[in-house]
Amino acid sequence: MTKTIFTMFIILMLSVAEAPVSGEAHATLTMAVTLPASASSTPLDGRMLLMISNNNKTEPRFQIRDGVRTQQIFGMDVDGMVPGEDVVFDASILGYPRESLADIPKGEYWVQALLHKYETFHRADGHVIKLPMDRGEGQHWNLAPGNLYSTPRKMLLDPAKEQSLRITLDQQIPPITPPADTKYIKHIKIKSELLSKFWGRPMHLGAAVLLPEGFDEHPEARYPLIINHGHFPHTFGGFRETPPDPDLKPVHSERFNLPGYNRIVQQYAYDFYKQWIGHDMPRFIIIEIQHANPYYDDSYAVNSQNLGPYGDAIMHELVPQIEKKYRGIGQGWARFTYGGSTGGWEALAVQIFYPDDFNGCFAACPDPIDFRAYTVVNIYEDENAYYEKGDWSQTPRPGQRNYLGQVHATLEQINQREIVLGTHSRSGDQWDIWEAVYSPVGEGGYPKRIWNKRTGEINKDVAAFWRENYDLRYILKRDWDKLGSKLQGKIHIYCGTMDNYYLNNAVYLMEEFLESTKNPHYDGQVDYGERAEHCWNGDHQRPNALSRLRYHVMYVDKIIQRMEMTAPKGADLTSWRY
Q1: Among 6, 51, 292, 374, which has the minimal tally of Cβ within 10 Å of its Cβ?
Q2: Angle at CA 381, nearest 5°, toward 498 and 454?
Q3: What residue segments make up the domains of the chain, in order of their start?
Q4: Beta strands in 235-284 (DSSP E)
């Protein structure tokens, strides 16, 4: 190489090294969001979100998701916003999936902004924090009543040119109408003294209660109670007292690749109603708990430093009131719990943490029950959550797959979406709620990060706290000499071998421990659906799309058998068998 060529090569390399990266100050596109003059003068706190979509199939706020079909979103915290004040998005504001406004290709887009409102909480632990209180929608930022948003507008965006665009939040999401009671479905709501004390404001728990056929006609009957754990229920799901709507426009299910899946859902709900009122159905009460909170659509039904004593509030305040009001037997031998995914973890967790209060759990596709397999991360041994790293190479860790193993999103991408939706574990989404439930309180009153949300670097001190308090497999192994006799015959776990979120990995580790138990042996069941996706529940006869519609009847026979086998002498096994 000649000296001249070498010199030109060095100049070229320096120019490349010094070239501005996307998102730096050379981009000139800015978008200002403002409140209308008619808005209240009360200062508003929250997360301002800016969404950009290349289509108008639906509003941009409904098109943010994991995977390649997502549209674009940016987010920034807002404190004390008032009418006339601009919140300005420029190239420095983090976005998903493109990180910067400077990365947006020139073109025409549908643009929308939304303010997800926060309120200030003065917690009993002395921390003052700002969070989005649930307002009846189950912690969905794009549906939360009171949130302000803009009418979608079509705009020409060109980051390479000087552009200063303005958006006004001219709409407000209306309140949600509470569901009405029916003959079979009742709704109960109580003020929780435990949670109200923790949060420094009135906090409530609720439940959708499914009453048995003949409840009014048999006032002498006392009923077993079954808790169906899961995500926030507006009302009791999967129960329909009328035949499917003949005029219902069929909708194709993208997840299951089934045409007219909405009609199938209605038919199965109606089939359950007919079975529920039939002569062969045992009579018991099923409830779905409403425990949406400032971090998520439910609390994971356990006590937590960041969420408060939800486990105790549910078990010692809500459940007794339901059993008193609706004539429950009110004893542990006559209580059971089941659920899938989040509900699967909750079903197993409450059985472990309240072993005498339940006589069996049926945990389908549970969220990670062994943190050595926190989906695909071992939080105790891995140094980084997002990448498997070697001396010369690194491989992104997958976050979501299909039954063929094809990856739709990585862990880094999923967590990037969450941090755009909210800082300090405030996205209202999956990884943040795990963090909020399992972590100790950090500086400022928000949950300590299990890992750096941008880099994936794992905090081993936080991981150790998780292990001692919420790693269900570890807790069972640590305390089996105390818990074993209380849990024998009560644990049933189901999972597909191709769970979309790799939840089967932790189930394998749990099974390994359970099968090794002695004095006593756990005497339960762990079962797998071959190539089944999320959320397989033990049904070997039907595909996931259908078996997930049968949760309420899946475990009835096992529940009855268990009660007949374990009920104490003189227990009521007859008044509810009419």
Answers
A1: 6
A2: 80
A3: 20-172, 185-368+473-566, 372-468
A4: none
**C-alpha radius of gyration, the chain, whole number:** 26
Residue type, 163: Q
Place of tokens 């199938």: 264
Q: Which of 539, 504, 533, 375 is nearest to 450 (CA)?
A: 375
Please give the helix or strand (H or E) that residue 223 lies within, else none.
none
- Which residues, at least 6 apart from 533, have a Cβ–Cβ distance to it below 8 Å? 402, 403, 496, 498, 499, 500, 544
pLDDT tens digits in sequence order for the chain, 578 residues long? 444 433 443 333 333 333 334 444 454 899 999 999 888 889 999 999 999 999 999 999 999 999 999 999 999 999 999 998 999 999 999 999 999 999 999 999 999 999 999 999 999 999 999 999 999 999 999 999 999 999 999 999 999 999 999 999 999 999 999 999 999 999 999 999 999 999 999 999 999 999 999 999 999 999 999 999 999 999 999 999 999 999 999 999 988 989 999 999 999 999 999 999 999 999 999 999 999 999 999 999 999 999 999 999 999 999 999 999 999 999 999 999 999 999 999 999 999 999 999 999 999 999 999 999 999 999 999 999 999 999 999 999 999 999 999 999 999 999 999 999 999 999 999 999 999 999 999 989 999 999 999 999 999 999 999 999 999 999 999 999 999 999 999 999 999 999 999 999 999 999 999 999 999 999 999 999 999 999 999 999 999 999 999 999 999 999 999 999 999 999 999 999 99
Contacts of 126 (CB under 8 A, 6+ apart): none
Rounded Cα distance, 160 and 316, in Å: 60
What DSSP element (H or E) covers 313?
A: helix 310-313
DSSP per residue, 419-475: HHH-STT-S-SHHHHHHHHHSPB-GGGSBPPSB-TTT-BB-HHHHHHHHHHH-HHHH
DSSP symbol at 126? S
Q: What gap in Å lies between CA 358 and CA 563, rounded to an integer?
A: 11
Cβ atoms 293, 232 nearer than 8 A: no
Q: Which residue has the tokens 């209580």?
A: 335
Asked if the peptide bond before residue 520 counts as cis, ω within 30 degrees of 0, the response is yes
Q: Is the dihedral of CA 355, 357, 363, 366 positive or negative?
A: negative
- List CB contacts of 45: < 8 A, sequence separation 6 or more: 78, 79, 80, 81, 117, 118, 119, 120, 130
Closest listed residue to residue 455, CA positions, set 487, 491, 415: 415
User: How open is the CA angle 211-352-545, to the nearest 5 degrees?
Assistant: 55
What is the third-level CATH fold of 185-368+473-566?
Rossmann fold (3.40.50)
Distance CA 44, CA 559 (A): 50
Vertex 143, ends 142 and 144: CA angle to 5°? 105
Longest dimension (CA), the chain: 101
Assess whether the previous peptide bond of 447 is cis (omega < 30° from 0). no
